[in-house]
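Homework help board

Subject: predicted structure for assignment chain

Our instructor gave us this sequence and asked us to write out the predicted structure in token form, then describe one feature. I got the tokens but I'm not sure how to describe them. Can anyone check?
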Amino acid sequence: MLTNIQKTQLSEPPLPQSPEKASPTKVMRLNKFPLRTVLIIPFIIPILASTGLVGWLSFRNAQKAIDDLAKQLNSEISSRIEQQVLTYFNQPYDVLQTTYASVQSGNLKLDEFDGLRRYFWQVVQSELANYPSFGNEQGEFVGVERLENGTFQLKIRTNATAPDREIYELDGEGNQKKFLKSSKYDPRERPWYKAAKQAGKSSWSPIFPAFSRQNTSLELASVKPIYESNGKLLGVLCMNITLVRITQFIEKLYISPNGQSFIIERSGDLVASSTIPQPFKVIGQENDRKIERIPADKSSNATLKATAQHLLERFGNFKAINGSQQLKAQINGAWHYIQVLPIQDGRGIDWLAVVVVPENDFMARINANTHTTILLCLLTFAGATVIIILTASSVTRPILKLTKASKEIAAGKLDNQVDITNFIEIKEIDTLENSFNSMAWQLKESFETLEDKVKERTAELASANEEIITLNKRLKEDNLRMGAELDIVRQMQQMILPNADELEIEGLDIAAYMEAADEVGGDYYDVLNTDGVVTLGIGDVTGHGLESGILMLMAQTAVRTLNEIRELDPVLFLDVINRTLYKNVQRMNSEKSLTLAILNYSKGWVSISGQHEETIIVRNGGQVERIDTMNLGFPIALDDDIAQFISHISIELQVGDGIVLYTDGIPEAKDINKKQYGVEAMCEVISQNWHLSAEGIKQAVIDDVRRHISTQKVFDDITLLVVKRSQLGVEKKSQPQTATLV
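My token output:
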């Protein structure tokens, strides 16, 4: 046996060999170094290496910390610039939209210039825009401007003053105080008017000069064209803002002693700079002035110019810079940290904010610390060497005695006890002595009991293995059972969805889509046609899995049952469904609930009740109306009595109008950057494709959602129902039994 063989080998010490018959290993042992050398050298070398490594790592870590600090600083500065710019631009855009809403509602009339003057006066008083104005297709114009000195001017051109525009100073109440001057002016020739006319929607104008100010400055305008109902252009609303405030902001934004920041357009022209107060040149005389924009790569500032040239060399052109970029490059012979952040508002602004910080702004203290670190490392090495030599001398003698004792134990003399006495009693040597004696005793006992322990451990492993096999078998059976249950529910869900024939309803063009995120989803939709009343149902059960699927089936059955008994009262309809599902959910001991909206269509009218996502009403021309259902109901199966929360609204649908129903899986679909798709994007696609069939509209939305999601996983069920009134259909059949919508 193995135990007996080991005992024999240990109990019989090897016979001494002659030098001629010594093994190669034995010959190598004759070349050992002295104990003192062996103790000192291995310690000195690591200390030398470690002190050098510590010094080098100290320098590298400090440099890395500087890199991280510089990148973090650049990132924070660029983010602050982006936030400041977008916040500054959102104000005139919001005012523009509010003004447009007032025009649409009739509260603000574009042909009443006196009313526009009073309104624009209130806008500039609130400092939401520097220069609100309106120009029309006849060349008429009215605007109120706040000047740098705090005064206000009215600028107006009518058919009576054409082709001149008159300028008046306004008093503290916004009334005309005195006439200042007049000059030729045609709003239709201005950059902001042309930009709005070309875009055909809310947008930003190109950057243009403001020569009317005391100091010429660059301006930008948020513009929106106003059209008649027949599509004819009436004029353009404009909210001018000056870019001087952006320049002032980045000038005051402290980065580092020699750091700077600037903003450029994708064309490379400067918008603002912390080092160049006027990022443009004025050419010409007083009455014939023009501006010449300064390209960043041709700027007079050496750092700014070199930074722009480096970006062009790296990316080819400024339009190729997508997303935030952190770079480190040599500029004018020195390393600089560069942060580039696109500034985009989704409405036409597409600029680049650039922050440049020299590495030398951070490295002066690091270099001083490096010299101190090197000196400390040298002192540490010298002190450690002295201590090692002294320690080796005190340890050498006891170690030599201990070596002899260890050889006896290795030779199998397990009954021998080690007894070391020395003039210096070292605690660790004493511990080692006790360890040798304990080891000998444990080896002796282990050889005697090893075989019994092996048998015992083998039996334990066999028992554990048998238990694992049993658990795996049980787990496999449970998985098969659960898979079968989920498959049955999934098939039942698919079976109760409306088939293609049920969607063929005279006078209506209907298309539907549903995709579950998991094996069994919680979305529900239905289309029922009974006695000329078309009932549409859309719902979303919380969560996924077996319970959600069962609750969806119960909801469909309840809706179908109430539809078959011709129940059209929305309050009673949803109250009965809620009480039925609530009691079943309580019996299931479940916490599931669902949002549910019920729509009844008949004779061109649709009744909407129940709380769910917004109901989208689309008119023949593609205009979108969003109906909030929050006050039309309450989540189903969450409470036993929701009748008091249920309400309904009725909306008339003309030929070409329609309804779009959806679950939250569409607006909450996320791309790889966790950005949600959003209801606005869906409404935009619906509006643009409303001229298509219901199937075409549905497919356009699904394709756009898929494009947004890309390779990202679908986390929620996606359901979409498009209903479009194509012609007079079920309502033209004057059936006596047809119920009237509540």
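Reply (TA_rk): Your tokens look well-formed. For the description, you could write something like this. Residues 67 and 680 are 41 Å apart (CA to CA). That's the kind of observation they're looking for.
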